[in-house]
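Because discrete structure vocabularies remain unfamiliar, we turn briefly to a single example record, giving the amino acid sequence and backbone structure tokens:
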Amino acid sequence: MSGRRNSSITLKQVAEHAGVSVSAVSAVLNNKKSSIRVSDETACQIRKAATELHYIPNGIAQSLRTNRTNNVGLVFENFGDITDGQFYVELLNGVVQELFKNKYRLTILPEVDRANPLKSLGNGILDGIIWCKFPQSPEVNEIIQRASMPFVALHARPTVGHEAAAFITSDNYGGARLAVQHLHELGHKNILFVLEEFEVDVPDAQARLSGFIDACTELDIPCSEGDIRTWNRQLDEFNDYLKSKPPHTAIICWNERTAALLLDLADQAGLTVPNDLSVIGFDSTSYSDRTTPRLTCVHQPIGEMGAMAARTLLDHLNGKDSLQDHDFKTHLDVRDSTSVAPTVAPWQQTSQS
């Protein structure tokens, strides 16, 4: 009768079963450099004994010996709904493809204790951290700078940055300028920029806003407080915005998810995109090809950025390179949500009739 096998087989038991020393077993099964020479025949005998006893290496013990867990953490606070566009999917795919082929595991950390961030970063079970939306708090940054593990941030370097992390980003500033220039060429003279509540201080959002403001200034497009709005995640403010009869004939949203939701709300309000209103987003995943109409978007290579973040961290862990920033280029994917500007905004046409 077969009973339950003991999952706590030790190196000593394997050594006794194989008729060799514990040091020889350790050298073979743990790939440990040793002064003990083990013949191919003896090594085969040791592996056979380990298989027969169902020996499982002690991962914790190995990590203590090597000071390496082969486990990387991915911090993504305000993770939201993964079905909102393809951003998370492409980002995670880029990270895991690079980690898995190098035999590293991934631990996703949805939130961090701001009072004691290092405590919530794995208590020593992580070799390094890839952090989306790296915190801007000086207190948190100071603690992280003293940490022994390396950090790679997946967003633009903040205005007041630190050297504790490498920053992997795209040209957010230039991408926003491309969006404004495209609308200007289509004759739009009044453009709204929409930020998302709780994401306003994210460096990516701030860089995109700066690109919008500078491009508008250079092209003589009005850009005051009324041309920049911060709405909640559901864009509940949109209907009141329309009732105010604003002058805008185009809206640039800070990301793809917000722009896609705006398309739905515009349709519910009886607006035709792009004839009545042009809309542009930022990210340009395959999701933008499935919206109605298909969404014109600033493209950033999200999967490549995730892979670069993982590769940068692994290279540093393996002593190949110091932590270095990397900035990817952006371009504009013109689809169906932008067109020539109407003479005046449609809600103003209604008020004049």
Remarks:
- The chain has three domains: 11-66, 71-169+302-327, 172-301+334-352.
- Confidence is low (pLDDT under 50) at residues 1-7.
